[in-house]
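May I ask for a sample protein chain and its fold as tokens?
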Amino acid sequence: MRGIRVLDLSISRAGAYCTRMLAAVGAEVVVGESATGSPLRAAMPVGDSKVSAAWEYLQANKTSRVVDRGTGLTDLVAGFDVVVVEGEGDVGALHSDVVAALEAHPSLVAAVITPYGLTGPKSHWRAGPLEHWALAGHMNLNGEPDRSPLPGGGAWLTHLVGVTAAIGVQAAVMSAKSTGFGDLVEVSALEALAAGHQWSFAIYTHQGVVKQRWGNRFGEQHHPLTLFPCLDGWVCIAAITGPQWEGLCIAMDQVELLVDEDLYIPAKRFDRADELDEIIQAWTSTVTVDEAVEALQAQHTPAGSVASFADMLASEQHAVRHFWADVDGLGADVRMPRWPFVVPGAAPEYIRAPALEQADEAPASIETDPAAVANQMETSAVRPLSGVRMVEFSIAWAGPMVGRFMADLGAEVIKVEHPTARGLAMPDPSLIAAEAGDWKWGEVPGPLSRNGVFLNNDPGDDWFNRVGHWNKMNRGKRGVCLDVKGEGGLEILEALVASADVVLNNYSPRGVVSLGIDSASLRAIRDDVVTVAMSGFGATGPQADSVSWGPVLDAASGLASSTGYSDSGPYKQGIAFPDLIGGLHGTVATLGALWERWVSGSAVHVDLSQLETAVALAGDQILETSLLGEQPGHQGARMVDFVPSGVYRAVGDDEWFVLSIEDEAAWQALVGVVGGDLGAAKWHDVETRRSDHDAIDQLISGWAASQTKFETVEVLQAAGVRSAAVMTISDVVADPQSVERGLLVDHARDGEEAQLFPGLAIRFHRAGGTVNPPPRLGEHNAPVLAGLGFSEAQIEALTEIGTLATAPPV
């Protein structure tokens, strides 16, 4: 966001990643540090060097300024458009400080990042990167069902909290430039990460089912969507659709499986996963990873290698797309991700993270006329993006998430769907009813209806409007059901584009060109349109045409290779994690491109690779691997910067909690709670504690053995120790913090029962977002087309011939 000055007063990863995203879209970021430097400078150095990979990666393209936080925010923020702060523990004073700064500087945008929010019974609780995995239900879905749950292999969720905050900052800045008033943007880890689930909340609020962890399988819904060993490594296979299943069978030379009609139903394949895995693994064990991927991709079945970070550093795809930044001064060929996406005109050239008080290498500040932004928006609007129109062509999760954010923030988002987009057909409702039989709330539904996630396991007469996870991802949008290639379809497409500020898609590059929504074609219709393409691998490079789903990118990015128990691995995440990563980064990119279009007056195109956003999320680990020449091994739930740290069993079946100790004060607090031998003199040193971690873990486990996870964490938090119960989705929903702050919102349309999902994860104290229901299929065909100048007769004729529709074809 060229012309915007940001003061980063955060002290950990979430705030630093937030401002890294703002720097990526052109903002000038100054890190305000104490005289002794930011705590991030002291994060675990790499090998024998004094280099903190976290500092080098997260603070690139920023400058440093020594500040005295004792003077309060009001004086420090003078001359800045944005300030980013973090808090944990007693956040009351921070809240008051921010409010005072906003009163003194009405146009200021202040982002406050906390673990649980500024209000509520847990507002004073503490949490770090390990606790972030536990507190919103993610960790409980990772790992083997008969072992302890696993966090991902890095501080990735903490970084995603930062991305969420960056989205809030961008929206508030846009509002401030049009109205003259800034805002307090509040982002909590709990709400940001609860919103980062695809199926998990929907199956609980719609059917009472608590999603479980299934190792490397994609629980309950689809199979195969998992990792298999090959001769020389691991491959991820993601055969979801019928054609993809056929492609897998052909690649394996197992065409006899195609006569089994049950295996065309994804959830039935999951129910027969043991049988199918034996067949699939018999094939993968005879081929190399490259041979498996080549055979499957040739059949258009998504597949990819389980790559290491070293593989990423050697990737031709990344080299061709100029993804890497060489880190001068740290050795030959030391590199890290430059940016997770590039907004042309806004993305700066890479500059190393600053030395303390190094302000002389700041990127040149570019003055921006606020009127250039205000003229593009409805200045009387309360919602930040009112007056913006986006046309969305997307499927699955990542693209729809961008549209959902834009709609929540006030944009008019027109979701364009093909008549078959929500599925060609469902089994006969009578078959589903018969299968349901005496289905009871809380039971996993039968395979015929399972993937629909229907409220009360009832598809109704219009099942295509009742798909729970689709409704979750597409709230607040207007629905147009259009066959672009049908008679008159191109005319409608051109009218939509001519009216749009932004056109977004997450189709394959081949599909984009086939549909005529590539950037060149769209610019021919509107010469200043913003276009955002979110394909799996990007539109260029040798892997551009590879097909993928989120778990394939989880494997291909190196994330899966870095996740695992100390004695095993690799492990995929329990959700389609790269879809979440791509959706959040895609929203930052879209808002950044919209700003660039406003200040430049020109069209802007973003070619976003979801693979690159996933790799960028682990950029500090990539840099560490580049420095060391090898990737660190699996650590389970131990975090290298926190000693001790880990996951511990509590009373009950599969009940766990985590804790992490960041400094000597926290260690003494833990000793005071646990008592006994934990206070032994030999452990008054971090390195000694590190070498005796197993013994310390035994003492913590023994102390907690007779307590519930909630009781244990209450005691630890009261002492100021970072800790969290490993929450299930039902735990999150019932949690007093979630209830008091209204975590769940109702998406129900008129005449429907309540349908609860996590709401907008960003709280604005002045402006705000609004959550509205999702559209029925083709619900807004008539009003949208009428607004584009089509007559009632034309709309009726287009509906008659099937170019427009309100139901899938029979």
Notes: The first strand starts at residue 5 and ends at 8. The first helix runs from residue 13 to 24.
